[in-house]
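Handout, section B. The chain below has 80 residues.
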Amino acid sequence: MHRIITRAAVLKTLTRFQQYTAATAIVALFVVVRAALDRVLPGYPFLVLLPAVMLVALLFERGTGIFEVVPVPRTVLRLG
């Protein structure tokens, strides 16, 4: 566990632009997974996207997590 935390600490040394770009890419990947699982989980739009936002906030910083909270509900409403 200690190795995972020290490797994740390197991500916090990225520039803000790189952090926000990586955070958007992570959430976009989860949106693709959500769209693929739409037939299996039709009534649970946030089930896959909530861990994505939590992962982004854990890996980078609080600001990127808050940044990703805004587009997630819009995406879910468009998919649903």
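Note. The chain has a mean pLDDT of 79. Compare this with the example in section A.
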